[in-house]
Structure formats: structure tokens, C-alpha cells
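User: We ran a pulldown and think these components assemble together. Before we commit to crystallization trials, I'd like a predicted model of the whole complex to look at. Sequences follow.
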Amino acid sequence: MELLLFVAASLRIGVPYTLAALGSTFSERSGVVNIALEGIMLNGALAYVLGAHWTGNPWAGVAAALAAGVLTGLVHAIVTVRFRADQITSGLGINLLAAGLTKFVLTQVFHSSSNSGRVVGLPEWDLFGLAHLPALGPVLAAPLVLLTVALVLLGQALLFRSVFGLRLRSIGERPEAAATLGLPVTAYRYAGVLISGALAGLAGAWLASEQHSFTDGMTNGRGYIAIAAMIVGKWSPLGAAAACLLFGAAEALQITLQGSAFPTELLQMLPYLVTMLALAGFIGRAVPPRALGTPYDPENA
Amino acid sequence: MKPRTLLLASAPLIAVALALLAGAGFILAIGEDPPAIYALMLHETFGTGYGIGQTLFKATPLVFCGLAVAVGFRAGLFNIGVEGQLTVAAFAAALAAAALGHLPAFALLPVTLLVAMLAGSAWGAVPGVLKARFGAHEVINTMMLNFIAFALVSYLGRRVFQPATVRTAEIGAGATLPRLETWWPALHGSPANLSLLLGLLAAAAVGVLLFRTRLGYELRALGLNAPAAEYGGVPIGTTQVKAMAISGALGGLAGMNFVLGYKHFFELGFSSGAGFLGIAVALLGRNHPVGVLLAALFFGALSHGGLAINQRVPKELVDVLQAIVILLAICVQQVVERLARRMPS
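Assistant: Here's a predicted model for the assembly, 646 residues in total across the polymer chains.
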């Protein structure tokens, strides 16, 4: 029972990581680094709260979060794909933008720059009787949890078993070769970035729905953990999801050990240390897509 | 100046002008008057002695962070870990300056600065080594090391922080840097301090390093064309590690403005993102020491200007403006470079 409760807590913590990491596999596989996940998630969280606040309907919040995610992703795509500007700088800029913009909007709507009023969360669904399972029931009753599981499986199939996925991956490896075959490199890269925007927006919706409100900076570095998980998961949806569960478990353990003599800060470092080890090749080699981070310029190809 | 050079140099100014225009949209949206708000901002930052002092105080850490990022960029390395480097360095320096507090200033101050530089450069060198040895990308590693630095300092801090606070003990009097108002009374009330002078010295030193030394030449060669540099005899790996260590040392000094010049202790979260703004400063300053100084002054003025207009427009407008400047600067730069390539040289 204790163990099952722990698994449930890890799942709950892992959901936003998984959604954002899944999205970023699509962006990176197309050749675009998306460090903007943090900011996209933050915008998504605020959009959820605004949608739910104005309509009273949590699903309007989810729709708003998706729209905010796609729009923020679009900014990143325009800057990096259309203008071919540096992807890291653009991502960091968008994170700063989201941090400022959400507080700015918060002051206008809720007259406070630190938190919103309380809004409705997403309802619980009892699909296949899963909600009645011991310990795991409540977390499996959350619609976004099941949706996340489905999206990971779908993402894995789409990326490695579909024509779209093959083309997307080829553009992340050798865009010039893909262009020679007549593939619209720019369109695929837009698609990759926008998919990651939508999913990071959804991750924000989950955070805001769980908390029933928006607080300033509430994503708290989760976007960066998602990037770390995607690297540890070697740029594949299933791998990323597994890493997110691992990181979620580390965080759940941290909460369990809070107040004990154990230094929880060491657990806090775990995801980052694991990522550095994976990048250095100590836990199998994590090899990024070949053209990752390089803008595609048909004039110079 | 050739028209091409002029065009390239104007890119940051175009970006700033466009960003201010976009900011005017936000100001209009909440029913305020853009020219009046910008005029107020200008008056409160450069129009009064106190404002100038505050602007200089906010600009000081940005000088170090901008230089740190610029040195990395020149060598083709993107150091987004300045925030972590300055955190570790400020923590170590504050502890050293407290533990050795009995020493006289002529000994304590250099030792404290040295500790800051060593701690920063050690933290910065790690991703350099990982890049040189394993080919691991420095962007991800510097990012990861930021979070590890925050966790490490809050872990170690548990033993050394003052009871019920997240700050260290007071540093020795010998390590404090006096405020500029001592010599320039008009700045009265602002904590601008001698760290600014250190920043100017650091900018000069970076200028000499980059453009007048062999290491600087190798560093720039590496950044411009790594295979050609290697063919020319530049040891790639060693130079990468050196560049990251120097970058980290510069970043390490960024916290001195707060620790030695303002509060005289280290406090968790004191920097509020100067390390990240350093990227914007280097970008806008085109990775040149003089450009970095000007850009730091601009971002420092924005930071203080935001507080000054908070009565009429939420100060978060400034965070939005800073971000828009960054996004526009990288786009405008691409457009301008494209145009410049088409111009007859």
C-alpha cells in the first residue's frame, strides 16, 4: 500500500514532465532546441486559470492552455525557423517574457502580481473502473493522466512508425538531404515546435488545475527538468516518459523524506546529475539529432 | 566607418527602438500614456543623482555577467550557467571573508576576490572539461549546473546560515567595498559601490585578453572557425576549458556588488537572474567589452526604471521589455547580417 501510494505520487508529479518532454522530443527531432518549455508551461498555466476563471469550465481552461502553448511555441518557431536566430537565446528570451507577461496579466486581472483567485480543477473520470483501484485510483481518475499515457504511446508510434515521423527525424538529421527529396523543411520544423508548444501548454494546464490557481513562477524549473528527461530518454517518447517517472519518483521521495535528517537537496540534484552523466556517455550514449540547433538556410545549403 | 560596419553596429539600436515601440503597446493597453511613462523612466534613472546611483548599482553585476557570456561566445561556447557560477562564488567568498574577518583590508579583499574567481572558474570549467573530453554540449551542462549549484548552496547553507535565515554571517570589515557616495555625494542613498570600478577594470582586462594576447587570439580563432583554428595549431580542448574557466571567474565576481558592496553577507536568491540577463547584455553588446558596458547600463536603467514607474504601470512591464529586446535583437541581427552580405564591401 505504501509503495502503491508512492507510485501514485510519482505519477502525479511526473505528468507535467512527461507532457513537456514528449513535446520537446518532437521539436528536437525536427532540429529545433526548445528551451522555451518553461515559459510555454507558465503561459499555459495562466491561460488555464483565465479560461476557467472567465467561463467556470475547466475544459475551457484546457483549451486556452493549448492555445497559449501553441502561440508561445509559434513565437519560438518564427524567431528560430523564419528568422533563423539562435535557438537557445530565443528559448531563454521566451522564458523571461513569460515570467514577466504572466505577472503583468495577473496584476491586470487579479490585482496581484503573485497569485490568482481560486478556480475549478479538472473533474475526475471513472474509466474502466480504474478510479476504484486502491491507492492508484485517484491519480488514474484524473483525465490528463490517462491522456498523457495515451499521448506517449501515440507519440512513440508517430515518431518511429509513421511517414510523418520518419520525415521529421530526417529533417533533424540532414535537412539539406530532406529538402533535396522535396520535403518542406520549414513546415516540418514549425510542426515540431508547435507540437511541443501544445503539449507544454497542456502541462501548464495540469499544474494550474492541480493547484486550482496560478502563482508567480509556479513552473519552478519543470521545463528544464523536462529537457533533461528527454536527453536521458535519448530523444524518444518512451525513454523520456521513463526518465520523467524516475525524476518524479526522486521528487516524491524528497517529499516523503522532508523533515527527516536526510539531506533532500541531494535528491533534488539527481535529475541534473543523471543528465550530465548521460550526456558524457556514462549511461549509454545520448546522441542528439545531427542538425539540432542549426538553422536551415536554403541559400547556404 | 564603412556603411556595412555601421549597419551591423546599428542592429542593437534598431532592436531596442522596436522593443520600446512594442512596450508602448502594453502601456496603451492599460490606459497609460507611453511618452509620459518613458519620460518618467528616463528622469528617474538618469535625471537624478539617486537614480544614476541605482542604475549604476543594477548595472554593475550585469557588467560581469555580460563579460562572462561574451568571453564564452567569442570562443564559440554558450555559457548559460553564469547564474550558478555567481551563486557558488558569492557563497564561497562570503564564507571566506567572514572566516578570515580579522585580516586587514589589503589582505582580506584580494583573498576574497580570489576565492570568488576560483570558485566561479571551477564551476565554469566543469562543462568546459566535459565538452573537451566527452563532446557533451556546454549549454545543457551549464544549465544543469545552475540547478545543482542552487541545491548545493542551500544544502551547505543549512550548516552555516544564521539561525532562521538563509544568509551567511557578516563579512569582515576589511572585505567591504565602500559606496560611491563617499566620493560622489550626489548619489546619496544608492548602494552603488566600488564594485563598479572592478567591473570597468574587468572590461579593460577582457579587452586586452581578447585582442592583445595569444590566448585571446586562439580563443577568437576557435569561435570563428574551429577546424581552421585546430589546423592552425590551436589546442581545441585546452582552449575550451580555459575559456570556460575565465568566463566562470568573471561570472564569479558578479556577486561582489551585493556581498562586498551592499549587504555584506550572502543570501539565497540574491541575484534575481543577473546571470541570465548577462546573455542579453553580451548579445546587445555584440560580445565587445565596450558594448557590454553600454548594454549593462541600458539593462540596469531598465531594471531601476521599472521600480520607478510602478505607481502607474506594473513594474513587470520591464521584464517584458527586456525579453522583447532579446527576441528582437536576435531577429534583427539575422536580417541585418543578411543585408550586409549583399552590400558591396
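The first helix of chain A runs from residue 2 to 29. That may be worth checking against your pulldown data before setting up trials.

User: Thanks, that helps.
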